[in-house]
Amino acid sequence: MTDTTAQLLALFLNLTAFLVALAIYRRLPTPLLHPIIVSCVLVAATLYATGTGYDTYRKHSQLLYLMLGPAVVALAVPLKHHFKLVRRAAVPLMVTLLVTTLLSPLIAVLIALALGANEQALLALSAKSATTPIALALADEIGALQSLTAGIVVFSGVIGAVFGPPILTRLGITDPRVVGFALGLNAHAAGTARALELSALCGAFSGLAMGLCGTLTALLLPWALTMLS
Amino acid sequence: MQRILPGLATLIGCLLAGEWLAARIDIGLPGSVIGMLLLLLLLGGMALAGRPVPDSLNRTSDALLSVLALLFLPAAAGVFFLPEEIVRQWLPIAAAMVFGTLISLVISAVLLHWMLRRSERDD
Questions:
Q1: Which of A98, B48, B62, B120 is the residue whose CA sits 20 to 30 A from A41?
Q2: ipTM exceeds 0.90, yes or no
Q3: Rounded to the nearest 5 degrees, what angle is found at the Cα of A136, between the Cα atoms of A131 and A142?
């Protein structure tokens, strides 16, 4: 198979898996059948069934990776449209950002520590509140396994994106600014994708939180680990 | 398609400028996040000059963001192909990911909800 054919096959697989997942979600809109989960299951099942390695698939999915960068830049547009609302809530947003950036890795590490995780797992977990591209750069810097860190970040993001909004609704929290900001802080890109589904305002606050939390984690984590050791 | 091309060129231009800056100043930020901040500055500057966000940029950004979940599907599918290190320690890691994420998410939402309500009551 030529490289071009392999890339087209990967793109075809990604597109059809995503379209099928969207169609299923439209009929049965429950969090457990969210397109993020179903499309991942479909892709994984296809890879297992055809005996294709994950690395091969990932390498040939370059086109989608390539568009991820411009998509992050595109978050500036909803942010610009809602900038007045962001500025008006600046102080509560900054306090929440600071508290969550400090607490989130701490809670994860403490839970893992209580259940007997080793140092490798703890290091990878400590980078979990940064979005994937930032977390990968961080893993290098603090000596965590990249594959483990990427897995943890993506999985945590999917959990937060899928189960976060229904839990918050049950707690009576439906303000799109609050839901969006909490999703971006704790579920990064997956959370932002989910927030954009809820509303443009929700997505703008999620994108803002994702960028800020990743930035702050990147600045604070190496320093905090040096202080601890 | 033609109508979204100027917007796409703007996004890629900002991304490249962001990557260029990220390689030169060491602040631990990925180029895409710097690119987003550059575009925000650009749009802010245009707003000061009384110019709205160009229609093409709105269209491109809507189109890209509506398929964000598709764009990171290749990375997310990696959840089913985790390295052996994570499989051996699956219980503490899974508990930390599920409960850690949800506890932290609820704390941040409750905190922000409470502070916003307080500050908006004072207004």
A1: B62
A2: no
A3: 115
